[in-house]
Each structure stands twice: as structure tokens, then as C-alpha cells.
Amino acid sequence: MEEAALRNLIRASLSLAFVAAFSLANTTNAAEILNFSQQTPGNVTTSTNAGNNTTFSVTNPLATVQASKVAGVTAPPSTLFTETFNFTSSTAPVNLGGGNVSQGGFNGTFTYFDAQLNLTVAGNVQNATLSLVNNGSGGTTGNFNASQVTFTNITPSILTTAFGTAPPLSSLIGNLSLTLNDLNPINPTSLNFQGSATGIITAQITSVPEPASIVMASLALVAGLGGVGLRRIKASRA
User: Do 6 and 42 fall into the same domain?
Assistant: First the structure.
């Protein structure tokens, strides 16, 4: 009876080990945090440039955006976030050619805050790029892309909904992408313009426990239990 019970224990432990590893392997480690479009009428973002010194910021203190999704979940139309950001570049050159204008090296901070639901997404940006691209049909498309985002504040409920848990902010790297609309002037020839913006913020967990390490730890535990059990069985038979 004792030997049969030990075998059942080992089987159960092995099953739990592989179930745990399978679950972890299928845990989401990349997620959409916020998807939004401008709600305030008119142009709320401004880019000013002189030489290699460019500032791209929200200049309307009442600027709000409407979130279409929060943590990947469709949000009601009343989900509004105030928008503030300020990005500057001074060391990277401004590139001109073919009606296109771009500059890299933007650093700065951003904050999106929903006072009604007490939700916050905030962070720092490094080495982002601001670009204006002639679309070939008489217009210009603007973009701001930051792939080196570190977060200073994300409401835990957003993280839990997005990832299934609330990972520490230090384990996340993010991306902020803005599409600039309603440019004024319509076809800017420099980084002096105004516009509205739609955007998306995503985050990825940069370090998670490997499933293999959990399996090995579980197997070690099973082996230890088995060794103890076998010694007891042999002692009882002696």
C-alpha cells in the first residue's frame, strides 16, 4: 500500500509540474496598454524647431484623448484620458529629402490620466524618432515612434488585465507610437507644425521564469520525495 501511494504521489507531482510549465509557457508577456484618439477639437500638439533643437509637446493643457481600448479591452466612449507629453532632441541631425523630414534622438516624458476611473499610464522615452513623410497624393503623414519606453506608473488593474498578473514596472519595456493628423501647415517642410494625434502604447515583459526551470525544480522535488519513499519501503521490508 505504501509503495502504491508513493507511485501515485510521483505521478501527481509530475502532472502538476508539466501543467505549471505549460501554463507559464502560454502566459502573455506582451500586451496592448492603451489605444486612443484625440478627443479635444483642433490641434493640441506642436513641434518647434531651430537648427537641431526640436521640441514636440502637447501645448493644450486641456487636451484629452478617448481610449478605444485599455489593456486590450474595448472601452466605453466615456473613457477619457488627459494627455501630456514633452519630447526634445538636440544632438541628432534633422534629415531632409524628397519632401520628407525626420529627426531622431528624442527623449522625454508622457502621462495619460483618467481622473474618473483613476487610471494612469506614464513613462519615459529615449531615442525616439519624429518624421513627416510625403504620401505622394498631396499630403503629409506624421509619425512619432518610441521603442525604448520605460514606465514610471501603470495602474495595477491595467497590468493585471493585460498580463494576467501585475509585473514590476522595472521588468517592462514599452513602445509608444503616435500618428499625427490634421497637420498645419498641410505639407510641412520642416519640423515646425501643429497636429492632432492618435496613438497606441504597448508593453512587454523582458524577463520571465523559463518553463524548463520550473519543470526541473518540480522534478527535483519529485525525485527527492521518491528517494525518501523508497528508502522507507526498503527499511520496512528489511
Answer: no
Q: Let me know: does 174 contact 123? Beta carbons within 8 Å.
A: yes
- Grid cell at residue 152: 514610471
> Is 74 within 8 Å of 35 (Cβ atoms)?
no
pTM: 0.76
- Claim to verify: residue 96 and residue 176 sit in the same structural domain: yes
From the list 146, 199, 151, the residue with the least C-alpha distance to 172 is 151
Q: How far apart are CA 206 and CA 226, in angstroms?
A: 36
pLDDT bracket for residue 108 (50, 70, 90): very high
183, 78: one domain: yes
Write a three-state SS string for 56-96.
EEECCCCCEEEEEEECCEECCCCCEEEEEEEEEECCCCEEE
Instruction: Please list, in sequence order, all residues whose beta carbon lies within 8 angstroms of the beta carbon of residue 201, skipping any fewer than 6 positions away.
Output: 32, 33, 34, 35, 112, 121, 149, 174, 175, 176, 177
What is the full DSSP assignment across 96-133?
EETTEEEEEEEEEEEEEEETTTTEEEEEEEEEEEEEEE
